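Replying to the earlier thread about multi-chain prediction with a worked example.

Input:
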Amino acid sequence: MVCAHSRVLLPWRHQQRPFSNNKILVEMDESTGVAVMKIKNPPVNSLRLELLTEFAISLEKLEIDRGCRGLILTSASPKIFSAGLDITEMCGKSTEHYEAFWRAVQEMWLKLFGSNMVTIAAVNGSSPAGGCLMSMCCDYRIMADNPKYAIGLNETQLGIVAPFWFKDTMMHIVGSRVTEQSLQLGQMYPAPAALKIGLVDQLVPEDKVQSTAAAVMAQWLSVPDHARQITKSMIRKPIIDRLVKQREADINNFVSFISKESIQKSLQVYMDRLKQKK
Amino acid sequence: MVCAHSRVLLPWRHQQRPFSNNKILVEMDESTGVAVMKIKNPPVNSLRLELLTEFAISLEKLEIDRGCRGLILTSASPKIFSAGLDITEMCGKSTEHYEAFWRAVQEMWLKLFGSNMVTIAAVNGSSPAGGCLMSMCCDYRIMADNPKYAIGLNETQLGIVAPFWFKDTMMHIVGSRVTEQSLQLGQMYPAPAALKIGLVDQLVPEDKVQSTAAAVMAQWLSVPDHARQITKSMIRKPIIDRLVKQREADINNFVSFISKESIQKSLQVYMDRLKQKK
Amino acid sequence: MVCAHSRVLLPWRHQQRPFSNNKILVEMDESTGVAVMKIKNPPVNSLRLELLTEFAISLEKLEIDRGCRGLILTSASPKIFSAGLDITEMCGKSTEHYEAFWRAVQEMWLKLFGSNMVTIAAVNGSSPAGGCLMSMCCDYRIMADNPKYAIGLNETQLGIVAPFWFKDTMMHIVGSRVTEQSLQLGQMYPAPAALKIGLVDQLVPEDKVQSTAAAVMAQWLSVPDHARQITKSMIRKPIIDRLVKQREADINNFVSFISKESIQKSLQVYMDRLKQKK
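Result:
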């Protein structure tokens, strides 16, 4: 996708950024105006506070770069797009930490769902919870055609709850009935099922995910930017405004929920189970 | 479904309940935490004021019973789930009666649509109008795979109108386009068509409706209650609040509509036609 | 469709109407209560200010005619239903003209989307932009089964933007996900694709479009008018009210957008391209 005469543009990589661990790799193709952003946080691309902060700053930089019109979001690790929010960030930490973490999750959503760029998720592996949210924020989702990969908001399975803006994002894509059942059950959809309900737009063989994303992107970029952007904003702004208006209440809600002893216990049980699996 | 070591728990059956005609049969399986509620009002399970009141009270008792986590709603009469609101309750009665009746219909909806339990409709027969509403209030709908059974909100066919909260309930499940066409035409969907538009979730042979409901229930109950309940409420509360906020206006609206001479006439015509059929 | 004993009723044709160029042909069948309205503005049924005004007045007359219960909207020119808003009305004109034009587009939408009649679009040809809007306003859409005919809101392809009420109308029919993608891309759907996403309800051979419209109309007219009308209004009024409340702001928005030099330029480019094609 990055053709011969393009060059990798990462000027801000050279600035001192204490938050950065280079978990967000950005390749910008000047000839097409398309950036490819790869999440690189092995083994499962968990969304930690640091990573989310780096993500938001990287995205912001692309957003203000007039030469960048499209973003392909994908994973640097095959088989997993992102395992979602890192549970260790929500377990046994301080109230302040929970607050900072949740604000960063909100920021990721606000920036990605509200992006002026064309955003395409190249879902090259499983994508539960926060990983599903990220891909749902994009304008288009291409998933590797492998029934072993699944996508969905499975929060209730962990005893936690997807907040209203996760719900709004899913409802925007698959409607209220499928969203309600998905969220109540914490349902994960194998790729073919995800296509069937419209949670992803297209399945392609694993080795074609990136090239298909580039081809679809070219089609989207053939539309005049300003008209496309106004259109996108007209549709998404009401959804975004709902969180903007109650952002602090949503943080308080999360912090008080996650701080409950019962919730902490059930997250601990879940983490212990994960460790035993390893 | 009610296994050997379970016992039928109906403590309130022994209390004096002047409203009760035992038209709502409840079997509670303590081992699974699942109650089966059967509507028994032969020949067609018409929803009379008495029955609706008994239904609301029975549901309320299950709701506050911490041992009860799931409800399967079905009919005691094969071939008919419920024929819907009893037209005789809306014909030739006093204003006070219409008011009490409509309040009971609202109450049924508020309690069932807003239930904290997992609710599954085992639709073992036809289910027009109010019967369709009841099944739409549940979290999941299993219907007998028989094209002779039909389901839908057919109010306009009778010259009456499904109120906004019937409409909201249907829109929640099948979206606005299908809802608009269904409601304008008063369309009844034979089971296969109902599945196709998503009005029911699953068709199974008639003799498998109850066992399938039990199996699906077990799956839903594998999700932690508190997370599932918060999720359900997050999605349904805005819909419920709309009626709560204008409940009295909705009653007045119904009473003044149903009291119109022209409406009374067309209901009378409809009833006369039904009688001739018999 | 117009049967032997019907007569064409166009009393207002004999009045002096300075706005009228007879671009809207109306045939009323008294025996069925169904009017057929044909748009006749060769070569492509562009929606000019004059035509829109004539349309609104004709519709208003049918609306107040108690004998008229249903409207079939179609094109007098085979192959094209309507090419949509006439771009020459938005290019190189005065602010006052843009304002009058946009008010007429709004009026068309308000009257057609809000009609008390059963409205069926007999889409006998391609139907981009404003043409798509007109057909989406109807209760039911029958399209000629010809993959050369396409329908959709393709505004962004021209560098302009479908306003929120175009978007609301489409969302009402195909949901938010399909609407967002369609509007961002300015996507035109060939007839089979339009059927698949639900943008039209039925495809029939080209020579059966009118007769099918008549048959479907008969089915819709079998429902008591008053119940159907209240139902339709209950669903559409909230959508209509959104424009009514901000009608002037919407006009100002359009006028200031369309007056921009950059927009004028891109419309000019588009028109030049169209001329070269001829």
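Chain A touches chain C through 22 residues (CB under 8 Å).

Feel free to reuse this layout for your own posts.
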